[in-house]
Design goal:
The protein is an alpha/beta fold. It has two domains: about 170 residues, Metallo-beta-lactamase, Chain A; about 80 residues, no CATH class. It has nine helices and 14 strands. The strands form three sheets. The chain has a six-stranded mixed β-sheet with strand order 1-2-3-4-5-6, with helices on one face. Strands 7-8-9-10-13-14 form a six-stranded mixed β-sheet. Helix 4 packs across helix 9 and helix 5 packs antiparallel against helix 6. The longest helix is centred in the last third of the chain and has 15 residues. The chain is globular and about 55 Å long.
Length: about 260
C-alpha cells in the first residue's frame, strides 16, 4: 500500500510533507519550515512523528526541526555533506544510499546546485520524489552555491525517474514560473493549457504541488534545455545543453 502523503502549507509559500503508513501507523516528515502548522496537522490526524527528513540547510526548510524533535523524539535524517550546517543528525546519508522510512525504502539523490549538499528523496513504491528547491513545478531553484552545470546534471537525474512519479517540491512558485515559462516556449500547447489550469487552481487557493514528472518533462523549460525546439527559440541551436539551461536560469533570475 503506498504511503499517504499530506501537504502542509507553511510560512508564506513553503510546503512540508507528512508521510503516513496506514498499516503500521508510522509517520514521517519531509522538511520543517516551521513547527506549529505541522504539529497541528499531526494532532488533527492523531499521528505521531517518527522521522524527519531534511533536504537542505536553508532555514525555511529546517527552522521547525528542533521543536518537532523535542515534541516527538523523531529521528532526524539528512545529508552527510550538509551535516555541518543542518540541525544535529541522527542518521547521515550520502548519494546512492537507501533508508527505510515508514516501512518503505527511500533512495537518496544528490541534487546539488541550489545548495551544495542538497538531496532529494525518491520513494519508488509510492511513486513520489521530494525535490524541495531543486526541481520545482514549472521551474527550478536559484543556483546559489553550486554551478549551472551541476544544477543541470541534478535536474537530469530527476528527469530520469519514472514519468508517473509525483514531484513534491518545496514552494508555491508555480504561477510566476508559468508566466516565465511561456516566454521561453510561447507556442508550447501543453504549456499554455497547463498555465490556464494553474491560474484556475490558484484562483481558489488550491496548491499546485505535487505535480507529475511527465507534465514537467512536457512543460518545464528547465528540463527542456536539451530540446532542439527550445534551443532554436532561444537562438542557441548549436549550444550544449548545460549552456542553454544556464541561459534559461539567468533569464528567470532577471524575470
Amino acid at each position: 500500500m503506498p504511503l499517504k502523503i499530506v501537504t502542509v502549507p507553511c510560512l508564506s509559500d513553503n510546503y512540508a510533507f507528512l508521510l503516513h503508513d496506514p498499516v503500521s501507523g508510522c509517520t514521517a516528515l519531509v522538511d520543517a519550515p516551521e513547527a506549529p502548522p505541522i504539529q497541528a496537522e499531526l494532532d488533527h490526524r492523531g499521528w505521531h512523528l517518527r522521522d524527519i527528513l531534511i533536504t537542505h540547510h536553508h532555514a525555511d526548510h529546517t527552522d521547525g526541526v528542533e521543536a518537532l524533535r523535542a515534541a516527538s523524539g523523531a529521528r532526524v535524517i539528512g545529508a552527510a555533506a550538509d551535516a555541518h550546517r543542518l540541525p544535529p543528525l541522527d542518521l547521515e546519508l550520502r548519494d546512492g544510499d537507501s533508508v527505510e522510512v515508514c516501512g518503505e525504502t527511500a533512495h537518496v539523490l544528490d541534487v546539488s546546485g541550489h545548495t551544495v549538499g542538497h538531496v532529494a528523496f525518491h520513494f519508488p513504491a509510492s511513486g513520489a520524489a521530494f525535490t524541495a528547491d531543486s526541481l520545482m513545478v514549472l521551474g527550478c531553484g536559484r543556483v546559489f552555491e553550486g554551478t549551472m552545470e551541476q544544477m543541470w546534471n541534478s535536474l537530469c537525474r530527476l528527469a530520469a525517474l519514472p514519468p508517473e512519479t509525483q514531484v513534491f517540491s518545496g514552494h508555491e512558485y508555480t504561477m510566476t514560473n508559468a508566466n516565465f515559462a511561456v516566454t521561453i516556449e510561447p507556442d508550447n500547447a501543453a504549456l499554455i493549457s497547463r498555465k490556464a489550469a494553474v491560474e484556475r487552481d490558484r484562483a481558489i487557493g488550491k496548491p499546485t504541488v505535487p505535480s507529475l514528472l511527465s507534465d514537467e518533462l512536457a512543460t518545464n523549460p528547465f528540463l527542456r534545455a536539451s530540446r532542439p525546439e527550445v534551443k532554436i527559440a532561444m537562438g542557441m541551436a548549436d549550444a550544449v545543453d548545460s549552456e542553454v539551461f544556464a541561459e534559461i536560469r539567468r533569464r528567470k533570475d532577471r524575470f
